[in-house]
Automatic annotation (TrEMBL):
<dbReference type="Pfam" id="PF11241">
    <property type="entry name" value="DUF3043"/>
</dbReference>
<dbReference type="InterPro" id="IPR021403">
    <property type="entry name" value="DUF3043"/>
</dbReference>
<feature type="compositionally biased region" description="Basic and acidic residues">
    <location>
        <begin position="55"/>
        <end position="86"/>
    </location>
</feature>
<feature type="transmembrane region" description="Helical">
    <location>
        <begin position="106"/>
        <end position="127"/>
    </location>
</feature>
<feature type="compositionally biased region" description="Polar residues">
    <location>
        <begin position="41"/>
        <end position="53"/>
    </location>
</feature>
<keyword id="KW-0812">Transmembrane</keyword>
<feature type="transmembrane region" description="Helical">
    <location>
        <begin position="133"/>
        <end position="154"/>
    </location>
</feature>
<keyword id="KW-1133">Transmembrane helix</keyword>
<keyword id="KW-0472">Membrane</keyword>
<feature type="region of interest" description="Disordered">
    <location>
        <begin position="1"/>
        <end position="86"/>
    </location>
</feature>
<protein>
    <submittedName>
        <fullName>DUF3043 domain-containing protein</fullName>
    </submittedName>
</protein>
<feature type="compositionally biased region" description="Basic and acidic residues">
    <location>
        <begin position="1"/>
        <end position="32"/>
    </location>
</feature>
Length: 199
């Protein structure tokens, strides 16, 4: 009765306005297309959101549980090669190919630890000839590892350029060489190809 005609027209326009998707941007002067929630409803909604946040101790406990779950998933992924839960450094087809390339061949660097133990044992014997042999073996092993790493990096670069021409290959060769230094059974993620198998 006491409302102005302009307010009545605005209310009718608001009723006639179509309900729009909230994900689309709305013009600032356009009617919003839905009723404003009552104060009690808005307050109860805010309270329910506030009540979901637990105490600091419970939040820390929940975070620990989530971290434990994530670590368990990551551990299983490292054993199975599941790409979804692998660490960021191991993800992607380029890194997977680099792993398979190294795992499919014999690398001299992977035998470095056993050879180092033998050479150290020889060098500790107080016989001059054996100590000279140990020094010579050190030199031979280092030269062989350098040559093998050079050949591996050259072949891997060539394969990566052929297979992944448009993708980011940064760090893949260094990643493969670091993997080649580890003994096969200690590598993570676990090798998914056999020796001699083409990746």
């Amino acid at each position: 009765m006491f409302r102005s005609r302009a307010k009545d027209e605005k209310a009718q326009d608001a009723d006639k306005a179509p309900v729009t998707d909230s994900s689309q941007p709305r013009h600032p002067e356009a009617p919003k297309g839905r009723p404003t929630p009552k104060r009690t409803a808005a307050q109860s909604q805010r309270r329910s959101v506030a009540n979901t946040s637990t105490t600091r101790k419970e939040a820390a406990k929940r975070q620990r549980a989530e971290r434990r779950t994530a670590m368990e998933r990551q551990r299983q992924a490292l054993a199975s090669g599941d790409e979804r839960y692998l660490p960021a450094r191991d993800k992607g087809p380029v890194r997977r190919f680099a792993r398979d390339f190294v795992d499919s061949r014999f690398n001299i660097a992977e035998f470095f630890l056993p050879m180092a133990v033998v050479i150290l044992a020889l060098s500790m014997v107080r016989v001059a000839s054996l100590q000279n042999v140990a020094l010579l073996l050190w030199l031979v092993v280092i030269v062989l590892i350098v040559l093998d790493s050079f050949v591996t990096s050259f072949r891997l670069k060539k394969q990566l350029n052929e297979r992944f021409a448009g993708e980011n290959k940064r760090g893949a060769v260094a990643y493969a060489l670091m993997r080649s230094l580890q003994m096969r059974r200690l590598r993570l993620p676990k090798p998914q190809v056999k020796r001699g198998e083409r990746p």
